[in-house]
From TrEMBL:
InterPro entries xrefs: Integrase-like_N (IPR017856), TACO1_YebC-like_2nd/3rd_dom (IPR048300), TACO1_YebC_N (IPR049083), Transcrip_reg_TACO1-like (IPR002876), Transcrip_reg_TACO1-like_dom3 (IPR026564), YebC-like (IPR029072)
Family, per entry: Belongs to the TACO1 family.
Descriptive protein name: YebC-like protein
Organism: Lentinus tigrinus ALCF2SS1-6
CC annotations in GO: mitochondrion
Ranges where the TACO1/YebC-like second and third domain occurs: 84-245
Lineage: superkingdom: Eukaryota
Domain TACO1/YebC-like N-terminal: from-to ranges: 1-75
Length: 248
C-alpha cells in the first residue's frame, strides 16, 4: 500500500493538495468535537487545535473556511453536521474505517454504499482489527546537541504516558519525533510536549485508528483495487479520513 501511494503522478499530487486543505478544515472540527485535546474551541486552551490552525493556514485554507469549521465545532449557527464512522471490508480482506462529516447522514450512507458496490467493498464489522490511540508529532531544531535534546524530550513524553516513538531526520538537520499513547492520555501527552523549552513546535496531535496487525506485501491486483476504493471514498465530499489495515 505504501508503494502504491508513492506511485501517484503529478495530477494526483495536485489533487492531494486540495484534499490536504479540505482535511485541514475537518481536522479543526475533530480537534474540538472529538475532544482530542480537551475539546475547547479556544486555541489558547487547546494545544492540538492551535497546531491544526497553523497547519490549515500553512496549507492555504481560506480564513472563512477556518472560521466556519470552528463555528460548527463550537455549536454555532452552522451546527448540524454529524460525525459518522463506517466499518468497511475492502479487497483482499483489508479493513477500512471511514470517518465522515455530513449534514445528511442518509445521503452519505447511500453514496458510500454505491462506492463500495462499484469498487469491491462492503459494510462489515472490522473495528476489532484496529485500536484507537493517540499520536503526537513534534519538531526539534538542528544542532550538535540534538541527541541530548531528544533524550530529554523522550523522558518528558514517557512521564506523560507515551508508549513508543519514531524519529525522522529532515534535510535541514532538524528532527521530527512522533509519539504514540493510549487514547485517554492524548491530552496529557500533548500538554507536556507543548510546554516551553521541550521542543521547537507541536506539529500534530490526533486520535487515530491504528491497525493491530498491519497487512504487508499485498499482491499488485489487490493493491490497485484497494487504491481505487480508497481514492473513490476520499473523493466524496463528506469524507474526512480513511484508515486501513494496510497502513503501518
Amino acid at each position: 500500500w505504501s508503494k502504491i501511494k508513492q506511485k501517484k503522478g503529478a495530477n494526483d499530487i495536485q489533487k492531494g493538495a486540495l484534499y490536504s486543505r479540505a482535511y485541514r478544515v475537518s481536522e479543526l472540527y475533530l480537534n474540538v468535537s472529538d475532544h482530542a485535546d480537551g475539546g475547547s474551541p479556544d486555541p489558547e486552551q487547546n494545544n492540538a487545535l492551535a497546531a491544526a490552525l497553523k497547519r490549515a493556514k500553512d496549507s492555504g485554507v481560506p480564513k472563512d473556511n477556518i472560521e466556519n469549521a470552528l463555528k460548527k465545532a463550537a455549536g454555532g449557527k452552522d451546527k448540524g453536521d454529524t460525525h459518522l464512522v463506517f466499518e468497511v471490508m475492502g479487497p483482499g480482506s483489508v479493513g477500512l474505517i471511514v470517518e465522515c462529516l455530513s449534514d445528511n447522514p442518509n445521503r452519505t450512507v447511500k453514496f458510500l454504499s454505491t462506492i463500495l458496490k462499484d469498487n469491491g467493498g462492503r459494510m462489515a464489522d472490522v473495528k476489532f482489527l484496529f485500536k484507537r490511540e493517540g499520536r503526537v508529532k513534534v519538531a526539534l531544531d538542528a544542532g550538535d546537541d540534538i541527541d541530548a535534546r531528544l533524550e530529554k524530550l523522550v523522558e518528558v513524553a514517557l512521564d506523560a504516558d507515551a508508549e513508543d516513538f519514531d524519529t525522522e531526520d529532515m534535510e535541514d538537520g532538524s528532527r521530527t519525533v512522533e509519539f504514540k499513547c493510549p487514547q485517554a492520555t492524548l491530552h496529557k501527552l500533548t500538554s507536556a510536549l507543548s510546554a516551553p523549552g521541550v521542543c521547537r513546535e507541536l506539529l500534530e496531535s490526533e486520535l487515530v485508528y491504528a491497525p493491530i496487525e498491519p497487512l504487508e506485501d499485498l499482491d499488485d491486483e489487490t493493491g490497485e483495487n484497494l487504491a481505487k476504493l480508497v481514492q473513490a471514498i476520499e473523493d466524496a465530499d463528506d469524507t474526512l479520513k480513511v484508515w486501513t489495515t494496510a497502513d503501518a
